[in-house]
Write a structure and sequence with these properties.
EC number: 3.4.21.105
Structural class: mainly alpha
Number of helices: 13
Order of helices and strands: EEHHHHHHHHHHHHH
Number of domains: 1
Radius of gyration: 21 Å
Number of strands: 2
InterPro entries: Peptidase_S54_rhomboid-like, Peptidase_S54_rhomboid_dom, Rhomboid-like_sf
CATH architecture: Up-down Bundle
Function: Serine protease involved in intramembrane proteolysis.
Subcellular location: Membrane
Largest sheet: 2 strands, antiparallel
Strand order of the largest sheet: 1-2
Distance between the termini: 17 Å
Helix content: 40-55%
Shape: globular
Organism: Arabidopsis lyrata subsp. lyrata (Lyre-leaved rock-cress)
């Protein structure tokens, strides 16, 4: 999840035990997952480094401004009124590479579009994102390998950061949520483009759509950067059609029958591939140009701000 100012929110496997509802007779390469665990470790290391730099006891003084968990020394957390997620201050996050529109556009610090993915607003934010990453990412890496999953993770995170910067320009943002939503989007497009190899199509689609809908709905709560979620999801959705295409069901068996050899990929897979590439290139290019020209997305879409925070009688945005 992503919170503005605080959080951005070899072997063959032939069974259906992969929990992806594939047909039991379809063979698939099973990879060893190492990239996702490495990303988790890197995020933990970065959080420790951020807390070391934050050094709450040195910067917070006064009886009413006690650091949380002072026994941790310089690793203790900011007061809960300042950061309820048990983490560093906003100024420390900004210093360490948080996404901040003015610095990206006017100070030419475009690297923040990627660095913000490795920062988290607090221990709660970190644990939530890393548990989600383990749950989603390890299985994807086992089925598609570290190169494709790594590309989806990084490019989706970039897409989420770009859209976030276009619409939310008055505060900072951190978190891996854009990249995580990119993996969810890729899972959905992978299901659609590889439709023929699924045994329980309806169950897979309904389950995935429910998970995506719940997470996007939670993104409409206050202080949550849903634009990072949406940008990452759309980027990952397009990338799934490009990077996660599988041969049609029955293609392997048809190779032994030369008189009726089945095409490896269907025409609709080729069509989705081309459309996804065009949308991805055009979308990222146009959004990047708008961002570095200093455009404000809200001027072009008057209602879009409701996608990140929907006001109710219980809260304001």
């Amino acid at each position: 999840m992503a919170n503005r100012d605080v959080e951005r929110g070899g072997k063959k496997n032939r069974g259906a035990n992969s929990n992806y509802f594939y047909d039991e007779s379809s063979g698939e390469t099973h990879w060893t997952s190492w990239l996702i665990p490495a990303i988790v470790v890197a995020n933990l290391a970065v959080f420790i480094a951020v807390m070391f730099v934050n050094d709450c006891p040195k910067k917070i003084t006064g009886a009413n401004k006690e650091c949380v968990a002072r026994f941790l020394g310089r690793f203790s957390f900011q007061p809960l009124k300042e950061n309820p997620l048990f983490g560093p201050s906003s100024s420390t996050l900004e210093k360490m590479g948080a996404l901040e529109w003015r610095k990206v556009v006017h100070e030419h610090q475009g690297w923040r579009l990627l660095s913000c993915m490795w920062l988290h607003a607090g221990i709660i934010h970190l644990l939530t994102n890393m548990l989600s990453l383990i749950f989603i990412g390890i299985r994807l890496e086992q089925q598609f390998g570290f190169i494709r999953v790594g590309l989806i993770y990084l490019i989706s995170g970039l897409g989420g950061s770009i859209l976030s910067s276009l619409f939310l320009q008055e505060s900072i943002s951190v978190g891996a949520s854009g990249a995580l939503f990119g993996l969810l989007g890729a899972m959905l497009s992978e299901l659609l483009t590889n439709w023929t190899i699924y045994a329980n199509k309806a169950a897979a689609l309904i389950t995935l759509l429910f998970i995506i809908a719940i997470n996007l709905a939670l993104g409409m709560l206050p202080r949550v950067d849903n634009f990072a979620h949406i940008g990452g999801f759309l980027t990952g959705f397009c990338l799934g059609f490009v990077l996660l295409v599988r041969p049609q069901y029955g293609w392997e068996a048809s190779r032994t029958n030369t008189s009726r050899t089945k095409r490896k990929y269907s025409m609709y897979q080729y069509a989705l591939f081309v459309v996804a590439v065009v949308l991805l290139v055009v979308g990222l290019t146009v959004a990047s140009v708008m961002l570095f020209k200093g455009e404000n997305g809200n001027k072009h879409c008057k209602w879009c701000h409701y996608l990140s925070c929907f006001p109710t009688s219980k809260w304001t945005c």
